[in-house]
Amino acid sequence: MGILFEDGNFPLFVHGFLKTLELSALSALFALVLGTVLAAFRVSPVPVLRTFGTAWVTVFRNTPLTMLFFAVTFVLPPLDVHFDSFTLAVIALSVYTGSFVCEVLRAGINTVPLGQAEAARSLGMGFGQTLSLVVLPQAARTVLAPMGSVFIALPRNSAIAGGFNVAELFSVQKTLTEKGYAIVAIFVWLALAYLVISFAINAVFSTLERRLAVAR
Amino acid sequence: MSTTRAAASVLYDVPGPKARLRYRLFGALGALGIAALLWYAVSSLADAGQFDADLWSIFQYTTVQQRILDGVLATLEAFALSAVGSLVLGALLAVGRLSDHRPIRAVATAVVQFFRAMPLLIMIFALYQAAFGAHPLWALVIGLTLYNGAVQAEVIRTGINAVPRGQAEAAYALGLRKTQVMAIVLIPQAVRSMLPAIIGQLVVTLKDTSLGYIITYPELLWEMKIIATNSDGYPYIPVVLVGTPIYILLCLALTGLAQWIEARGRRGANRRTTAAA
Questions:
Q1: CA separation (Å) from B180 to B85, B116, B157, B184, B188?
Q2: Can you give the pTM of this predicted structure?
Q3: How many other CB atoms are there within 10 angstroms of residue A93's CB atom?
Q4: N or C: which terminus of chain A has fewer CB atoms within 10 Å of its end residue's CB?
Q5: For residue range A12-66, what is the model confidence (pLDDT) as tens digits?
Q6: Which alpha helices (DSSP H) does B118-218 contain, by range?
Q7: Cα B163 vs. chain centroid, distance in angstroms?
Q8: pLDDT greater than 70 at residue A137
Q9: Are the C-beta atoms of B149 and B84 separated by less than 8 Å?
Q10: Are A108 and A81 in contact (CB under 8 A)?
């Protein structure tokens, strides 16, 4: 079990752990922004934008994440778009997760009582104001639980990046396996790292849920 | 669909002449933006010579077509095995979490929580390295079964808890034993009511079979990569443009099945309520 503290493995592991955190945090941020914009598109009064939102979500929710990683890794370089593999991973993860965030938010928008939007409109607010000042803040509070599971899935999904040249926890697993350490021992340490991450996110979301619970 | 439209339209008034003009302007701008985006994508693909006939001609070879077909079949094989496995494991774990015996409950809860929190890829890779180096299919199937089984367990458990209490009470009153109540009264109803969520998770299972790519299991994505690396000019882009729609169609077919079953279920339920009333 002590393999982590032999042979300079500890810096490798810590580096991988931090890379996983960085990748997940950046992708979460972009996914949130992208998902909100897409959700706004999907409920907007402009049919073109609605269709675009629907098409985008349909395509990216039904494409395997591995396929997306494969696509960004092998499609962009021939087109003279050059990013390092970390940026490519952030792109793939944000695009994938963003479409899930969009669907969760849209479900939340549908739970906001009609009176809220009606009251906002009767005060003279337009679509943008109604959505951003009245409906979305309430929708976000009601969907904290499903949003939590989207964002807990994100660090787990980010492991795929290790298969595409990003030095995060999965590539730590590969490196240590190649070095010939016991596979079970490696697995236990990695499991611990991922459990810490997902419990931390879980704790954040349950605190938020408690603080922001809507009394209806 | 009609409910979403109604909920959406509450966000804005019925447009007057000015608003209609504004929406049309936004629509035109949006369409222009999307068209520009598409044009940029297509033109940069064309500039890079990705639409050249010789890059695409590989799809005429029967060997390449055979490879794609083999890939789809391998994907479906892994999916079918892990779908069955995860449903069986899910039902067992759900029953375990609802057991009257504290140790069984504790073990089932621990198993569910652990496998739900672990990245699938880490498990599959560990299984592949530890035991299934020669048979990546089994590493993939076991990994998928463990992870999705844990998720399905939570779905089925929610379903079992949602079955009206009277169902179990009536079954006990008829003299059925605990196992019988669970197996012939509660689980069938739970599965039926949770079918949309269960099939939703099956779509996830189908998508996750593509992780086989990383452990060299020859599923669709792996075959696609082999096609690209073995052909002249490395046609990665044509291969992605062919492979992605296949995955999307497979997933949409499964989602369509879920919606069809849901519609059928509603029809049956309606018939029963009318009969009862």
A1: 22, 29, 17, 6, 11
A2: 0.86
A3: 27
A4: C
A5: 888 899 999 999 999 999 999 999 999 999 988 888 899 999 999 999 999 999 9
A6: 120-130, 136-162, 165-173, 178-180, 187-193, 195-208
A7: 25
A8: yes
A9: no
A10: no
Residue A212 C-alpha, separation from nearest chain B C-alpha, in angstroms = 23
- Interchain CB contact of A64 with B (< 8 Å): yes
Contacts of A163 in chain B (CB under 8 A): 121, 213-214
Work out the mean pLDDT of chain B and round it to a whole number: 85
Q: Are residues A176 and A15 in contact, defined by beta-carbon separation less than 8 angstroms? A: no
Question: What CA–CA distance (Å, rounded) separates A4 from A2?
Answer: 5
Q: Give the closest of B11, B209, B224 to A130, CB-based.
A: B11
pLDDT band at residue B11 using 50, 70 and 90 as cut-offs: confident
Query: What single DSSP character describes residue B213?
Result: G
User: What is d(CA B179, CA B169) in angstroms, rounded to the nearest whole number?
Assistant: 14
C-alpha separations of B232 from A78, B55, B218, B236, B241 in Å: 14, 7, 21, 11, 17
Instruction: Give residue A133's identity as a one-letter amino acid code.
Output: L
Distances (CA, A) of A171 to A13, B122, B163: 10, 10, 45
Residue B267 has what pLDDT? Answer: 61
Report yes or no: A100 and A61 within 8 Å, Cβ to Cβ. yes
Q: What is the pLDDT of residue B16?
A: 80
pLDDT digit string (tens) for B161-171? 888 989 999 99
| ipTM of the prediction | 0.84
Tokens for B206? Answer: 């189908």
Distance from CA of A199 to the nearest CA of B (A): 9
B188 inside 8 A of chain A by CB? no
Distance from CA of residue A177 to its chain's centroid? 28
Contact predicate A154/A24, CB 8 Å: yes
Q: What tokens were used for A126?
A: 């337009």
User: Residue B243: which of A67, A110, A126 has the nearest Cβ?
Assistant: A67
Place of tokens 């060997």: B63
Amino acid at B231: S
> In the structure encoding, which two tokens stand for residue B56, read together?
């695409």
A17 CB within 8 Å of a chain B CB: no
Is residue A22 classed as helix, strand or coil in its secondary structure?
A: helix
CB-nearest to A159 from B4, B121, B248 is: B121
* pLDDT above 50 (res B277): no
Yes or no, beta carbons of B210 and A65 under 8 Å apart: yes
Burial A115-124 (b: 16+ CB within 10 A, else e): ebbeebbeee
Q: CB of A114 within 8 Å of any CB in chain B?
A: yes
Task: Determine the distance in angstroms separating the CA of B226 from the nearest CA of chain A, rounded to an integer.
Answer: 13
Q: Report chain B residues whose CB lies below 8 A from the CB of A52.
A: 30, 34
Does position B270 have pLDDT exceeding 70, yes or no? no
Structure token digits, residue B192: 């039926």
